[in-house]
Every structure is written in C-alpha cells, then in structure tokens.
User: Which sequence fits this backbone?
C-alpha cells in the first residue's frame, strides 16, 4: 500500500490527487489518501478527509512508502516512522498554498533524506526510483537541549 | 512535582507548527500548556496535555482582535513565566502580550523555512529572548539566532 498525505493546508491540492488517482487506476495500486481540504475526490483510491492521528500513523506504518505535499508535518510523520518519502511541493502560483514549500523540499532532497517531484509529470519516474533510494536517516537536531539550557540560566 | 517547573505556554498554528512545538519541547523540564487552533486531530495529538484553543486569524483583522482577547485571557488564567512559540499568525498577539507582561519569549522559526524568514519570525525576532532556527542559511537574516538543526 502507498499512503498519500496533503496535510492540513487550507488550500486544495487537486494536482497531486488527480495524478495519483490516474496512476492507481493504471497500475492497479492500493493507495490511501488523506485528502485534508482537497476538493477532488479520487475514484481509484481509498480516502478520508481527516483520519484520527493514531489511525493515520498506522496507515503510514503499513505503507511501502509515502507520497506527500511539501509540508513539514507530513514529511515529519513519514520520516518519524522510518518511511521513504516522495515530496511534491504545493505551488502558491497555482493557488495550492499560501507558503512556498519548495525550499524545504529542495533542502531535504539535497541532504538525501527524501525524493522530490517538482513537475507532476515526473511522478511515475520517481515512484520507480523509490525502491533503490537509500535515504540518510540521521537527524542532528538539539532544540530541546538548547531550550533546557536557556531556561536553567 | 510539576509545581517547581516554570509554567510555559507552548503555541503553534494547527498543522506542522504544532508538530514542531511538540517535538521542540519533548523532555524539556517545563510545566507545558499548549495553545493552538482546533483541527480534527488536535485533541488526539495533544492527548493528556493541558491545552487551550484560540481562533486562527488567517488573514482577517476581526479574527486577529478575537485572537488577541483570547490570548490575554489565557495569560490571565494561567500566569505563565515562559512562552515557547513555533509561529503562525495565531501566536503574534500572545507573544506581544507576554513580552509586555515580562514573560520570557522563545521563538523557533518553522522548519519549513530554509532560506527566507517567515512573517511572524521577522516580526517577533527583535523581542525574542531566545531565537532558534532549524536551517543555517537563516542565520544571515537572524544574526543573533541559535542554530538548532531541523526537527525532522
């Protein structure tokens, strides 16, 4: 199974959902999409608008890999469960978001932590590359320590 | 035991910002009270945590005013010592009231921002007692910020 996440963004992300739906039909894939506020509903995928968090995390852990928008929360959820991620950034110029998701996606791609799709036409090709993708999994975050240190002063 | 820990309002907008707020304060010794806006999964994400919901102002001036009253009410009710903020328009009023009342303000710029600062981050940077960025290119925009690495 493949899980697709478009996050809690208030804008609709039809471009990704339609592309996935087409591929699911063509290849007979088992796909679950958490649609969030996206208006298009797929005909060849299972979907829900908002699943309770634990059920969503369960879907992710049962997935082979995750395809998601370029939002921090969705990427974090997938990486935290050790899943390979293909991120497709939303574009404000297409009315898909208020924010630019490209910078985060580009940076994580450059660090070899995720795969990225900037033109939806490349999605099929990138999905084919998932199997041989060997992501870097180490995080170097020390924010809780910095806060703790600051507050103890 | 919790009474010895500094009472802290942890605020972040509903989606990724809230996830960041949870991760940033993991195992930090504070008495946490979350402030966010309600989304279908918020209750579950914050299960077992003290929390208040406020309105998401998004782009509406009227909602900013309502959010400001709610923020002031939460401060009056909880009497916190510290605010930890992961951003979004939702957090602006609470942060300003907090600073006016002498609370410590810790701001963590969203991990979604790699090279360009956020609107809320730029606005609150001069007032934050501790300003953390998750990506190094942002240190150019926020010279006295501390690099903390991405919460990923």
Assistant:
């Amino acid at each position: 199974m493949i899980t697709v996440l478009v996050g809690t963004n208030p804008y609709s992300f039809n471009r990704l959902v339609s592309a996935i739906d087409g591929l699911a039909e063509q290849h007979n894939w088992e796909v679950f999409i958490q649609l969030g506020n996206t208006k298009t509903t797929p005909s060849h995928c299972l979907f829900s608008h908002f699943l309770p968090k634990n059920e969503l995390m369960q879907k992710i852990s049962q997935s082979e890999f995750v395809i998601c928008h370029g939002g921090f929360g969705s990427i974090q959820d997938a990486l935290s469960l050790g899943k390979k991620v293909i991120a497709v950034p939303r574009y404000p110029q297409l009315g898909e978001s208020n924010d630019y998701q490209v910078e985060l996606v580009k940076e994580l791609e450059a660090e070899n932590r995720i795969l990225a799709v900037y033109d939806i036409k490349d999605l099929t090709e990138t999905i084919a590359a998932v199997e041989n993708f060997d992501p870097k999994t180490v995080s170097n975050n020390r924010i809780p320590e910095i806060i703790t240190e600051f507050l103890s002063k | 035991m919790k009474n010895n820990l500094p009472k802290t309002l942890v605020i972040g907008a509903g989606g990724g910002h809230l996830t960041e707020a949870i991760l940033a304060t993991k195992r930090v010794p504070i008495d946490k009270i979350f402030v966010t806006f309600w989304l279908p999964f918020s209750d579950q994400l914050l299960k077992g945590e003290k929390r208040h919901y406020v309105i998401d102002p998004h782009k509406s001036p009227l909602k900013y005013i309502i959010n400001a009253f709610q923020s002031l009410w939460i401060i009056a009710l909880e009497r916190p010592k510290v605010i930890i903020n992961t951003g979004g328009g939702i957090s602006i009023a609470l942060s300003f009231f907090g600073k006016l009342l002498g609370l410590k303000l810790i701001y963590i710029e969203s991990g979604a921002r790699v090279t360009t600062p956020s609107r809320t981050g730029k606005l609150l940077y001069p007032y934050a007692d501790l300003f953390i960025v998750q990506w190094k290119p942002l240190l150019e925009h926020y010279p006295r910020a501390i690099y903390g690495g991405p919460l990923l």
Notes: Chain A touches chain B through 40 residues (CB under 8 Å). The radius of gyration of chain A is 16 Å. Helices of chain A lie at 14-27, 53-62, 72-80, 102-110, 123-129, 143-152.
